[in-house]
Amino acid sequence: MTNRPVDSPLTPTRRAAGLLAGLALGVAVLAGCSSEGASTDCGLDACTVTFDRGVEASATILGVEAKLIGAQGDQVTVEVAGEQLSLTVGQQAADVGGLAVTLDSVTDQEVKIRVARNPGS
Fold first, then answer.
1. 99-106 vs 75-80, strand pairing mode
2. Do 37 and 58 contact (CB within 8 A), yes or no?
3. Which percentage of the chain shows pLDDT scores above 70?
4. 41-67 pLDDT, tens per residue?
5. What is the top-level taxon of the source organism (predicted)?
6. Which residue range forms the structural domain that includes residue 97?
7. Which alpha helices (DSSP H) does 1-90 contain, by range?
8. Model confidence at 23, in pLDDT bands (50, 70, 90)?
């Protein structure tokens, strides 16, 4: 007969430590986004930024700053990672420093863009 150690179930202390580690990781991911005059909705590899029109709006997402420069009709000018882009709804994504930037929508009140990491970058 072989004496093998018995795997014990996770103790409440170990369970709590794992939960706290997971929460800390989640807070760290969310802390990577900040905004002024804008709101962000981020996942692991992409963020949707909704800029308020009529104010100086910017957001820091995926390690870069995105700013709304201006909007006229269905054309919008944004600055992402220091590069200005002119975008229209439905246009193919613009590539900026390994990021794909698209214009989702434009209204009188807000401008919504999507910034995603390019696969293979």
1. unpaired
2. yes
3. 69
4. 999 899 999 999 888 899 999 889 999
5. Bacteria
6. 34-117
7. 12-30
8. very low
| H-helix segments, the chain | 12-30
User: Of 58, 56, 63, 68, whose CA–CA distance to 99 is shortest?
Assistant: 63
Give the CA count within 13 Å in the CB-facing half-sphere of 32: 16
The domain total for the chain is 1
Task: Look at residue 97 and tell me if it is in a domain.
Answer: yes
Residue carrying the six token digits 């150690």? 5
Sheet of strand 46-52, all strands in order from the earlier edge strand to the far edge: 38-42, 46-52, 110-117, 99-106, 94-96
Contact criterion met (CB below 8 Å) for 103 and 113 = yes
pTM of the model: 0.70
Mean pLDDT of the chain: 80
User: Are residues 116 and 96 in contact, defined by beta-carbon separation less than 8 angstroms?
Assistant: no
